[in-house]
Design brief:
Layout lengths: L1 E9 L4 E11 L2 E12 L1 H14 L6 E6 L2 H9 L7 H12 L2 E6 L7 H18 L21 E12 L2 H9 L7 H14 L1 H4 L8 E11 L4 E12 L4 H19 L7 E11 L6 E2 L2
Parallel strand pairs: 1-4, 4-5
Antiparallel strand pairs: 1-2, 2-3, 6-8, 6-9, 7-8, 9-10
Helix pairs in contact: 1-3, 6-8
Length: 285
Amino acid sequence: MVEIYIDGSCMGNPGPGGWAAILLRDGERLELKGSEPQTTSNRMELMAAINGLAHVPEGEEVTVYSDSQYLVKTMKAGQRRKKNLDLWQQLDKLSEARKVSWVWLQGHAGHPENEQAHQLAQEMAERAQRPTHFDSTGRVHMVDVSEKGPTSRVAVARGRIGMQPATLELIRRGEMAKGDVLAVAKIAGILAAKRTHELIPLCHPLQISHISLEFDLDEEKSEVEVAATVRATERTGVEMEALTAVAVSLLTIYDMCKAVDRGMKIQEIRLVRKSGGKSGEIVLE
C-alpha cells in the first residue's frame, strides 16, 4: 500500500504557484515538488496528485490524502469538470490504471505529512515568485553557490522541429546533401551542453559527467523530437545544459536541412524533469 499526501499553493490565485507530493511506502519516503510562474491553487492541487500517482506502478493500491475538497469530491463523486480539463484528463488516466482511494483531510489540523506537503508547496510558490539572478537592490548578479554541497544532478529537456515529409525522409535515409543530420546534431548538442556557461551569461561552469541525446522521427506529425539528458555531481542544477543541448541540436537540424525546406519550425523546447539539490525531484511531464 502506498500513501500520498499532496498539497498545492498559489500566491495571488492566479499567480506563482507550487505543488508537493509526499509518497510513503514500506518505510521509504519520496518528496516531489514543482512550481509554475502563473497558475491557480486548484491546478497546483491537481499537479500534486498527477505527479504523485505517476510515481506509483500501475495496478498498485494507493491512498491519496488531500485537504482540497475540490479535488477529493470531484474524484470520489465523479462531478462534472468545468475547468482544468487538461489536468483532469491526465489524473483520470493515472487513476484508472491504479486502485486509488481518495481521502479528505482537514487542513492545518496538525497532521505531520499534510503539514509538510503544505510547507513544501508554499516554498515552491515563493520560489516561483522571486527571480534568483537579481540581488536585493534589483541588480543582476551570479548566484553564489559556494555554500551548497555537491549532489547528483539530472535534467531532461525536449524540443521538436516540424518539416515537410520529404525532408524527414531525407533525414531518415541519411541522404541530406550536408551529411548525416542526426549524427551532426548529436555532436552539436553535446558540445553546446559543455559550453553553456559561455553562451548564457549567468550560468556556472560545470563538470558534466554524462550527456545523451535521443532523436525520435515521427512520420505521422512529420517532425523530429530531440530529448537531452545531462548528469553531473555539482552545487547547482544542469537544466540549462539540457535545454541548450536541445536548442542547438534543433538549430543544427535546421541548418543542415534549410536548403530543401525553408518552412521548418522549431517548437516546444522545455524542461520535462530535474532532480538533485534542495528542490529535489521536479517532474513537469
